[in-house]
Design a protein that fits this description.
It comes from Hymenobacter mucosus. Residues 123-240 form the Phage head morphogenesis domain. Pfam families: Phage_Mu_F. This is Phage Mu protein F like protein. InterPro entries: Phage_head_morphogenesis_dom. The chain is mainly alpha-helical. It has 2 domains: 6-181, no CATH class; 182-245, no CATH class. Helices cover 64% and strands 9% of the residues. The protein is built from 9 helices and 5 strands, in the order αααααααβαβββαβ. The chain has helices spanning 6-30, 33-40, 45-49, 55-80, 90-105, 108-132, 137-178, 197-202, 230-233; strands at residues 183-188, 206-208, 213-215, 218-220, 239-244. The chain has a 3-stranded antiparallel β-sheet with strand order 2-1-5. The chain has a two-stranded antiparallel ribbon with strand order 3-4. Helix 1 packs antiparallel against helix 7, helix 4 (55-80) packs antiparallel against helix 5 and helix 4 (55-80) runs parallel beside helix 7 (137-178). The longest helix is centred in the middle third of the chain and has 42 residues, at 137-178. The chain starts with 5 loop residues before the first helix and ends with a strand. The mean pLDDT is 94.
């Protein structure tokens, strides 16, 4: 059965990251501007933090999910059905686009909420520290912008690596499910010596296409699944392959 090579897949993930990391870093910076405006108008640090908006970050994540998941769904479908069916018809692609769009409103919502809450924590901590130091409002606002800008890229890297792998594996699973073939999925670790012990232990584990992998103390439909504990999905680059049902 045709398969994707690990090297080709990692190269695609790297390309996706190069595309979306700058966008997400910019969105993280923009997300604090309403909070800064509120603080400049007299809001307390806690109240100002509540003004952090998820609009910009949500827009980038939706673009990421739609791009990566749909690309990988089509790639998996075409690979698994090579020589058996025509390329994925437009109706399938439309369905994948809809699923990717809904992803952020469903399980992906937990990710967006977590990002927003962490940003709110940064806003609150920086402004409270500025008050303790007796900084003026303009100086506190300047310090907050500098802090957020300084950490935006590293945060964007961590988020993109996690969410790109998750959406890649989700899309791949959609593509496999759409083939109608009698397949099961199999966990595949990165083989680079950096995989978590729980992911090394999961390597080779098989599950029905609609089933779950057992990973550490969690269960997920694919590597990077938002249903997994954060410690089992953050920065994960494992994937799944597909094999005939035993």
């Amino acid at each position: 059965m045709p398969t994707d090579t690990p090297e080709a897949r990692i190269a695609r993930l790297d390309a996706y990251e190069s595309r979306f990391i700058p966008k997400l870093a910019a969105a993280l910076i923009k997300s604090v501007e309403p909070a800064i405006s509120a603080y400049e108008q007299g809001a307390t640090p806690s109240l100002a933090a509540a003004y952090v908006k998820d609009t910009h970050v949500g827009t980038v994540l939706e673009q990421l999910y739609r791009t990566v998941a749909v690309d990988e769904a089509k790639r998996t479908y075409d690979t698994l059905t090579e020589g058996q069916k025509a390329q994925a018809p437009g109706t399938l692609a439309d369905g994948w686009v809809a699923r990717a769009r809904d992803f952020l409103r469903g399980e992906g919502r937990m990710t967006l909420q977590g990002i927003t809450e962490r940003t709110q924590g940064v806003v609150r901590d920086v402004l409270e520290a500025a008050q303790e130091l007796g900084l003026s409002i303009p100086d506190a606002a300047r310090r907050l912008r500098q802090t957020v800008t300084g950490i935006a890229r590293e945060r964007a890297i961590a988020i993109c690596r996690t969410e790109i792998n998750a959406s890649s594996n989700a899309g791949s699973l959609w593509g496999a499910q759409a083939t109608g073939l009698a397949l099961q999925k199999q966990w595949l670790d990165t083989k680079d010596g950096r995989a978590r012990p729980t992911h090394v232990a999961a390597n080779g584990q098989k599950a029905p296409l609609d089933g779950f992998f057992s990973v550490g103390q969690g269960r997920g439909r694919y590597p990077g699944d938002p249903l997994l504990p954060v410690g089992e999905r953050a920065r994960c680059r494992c994937t799944q392959t597909y094999v005939p049902i035993d």
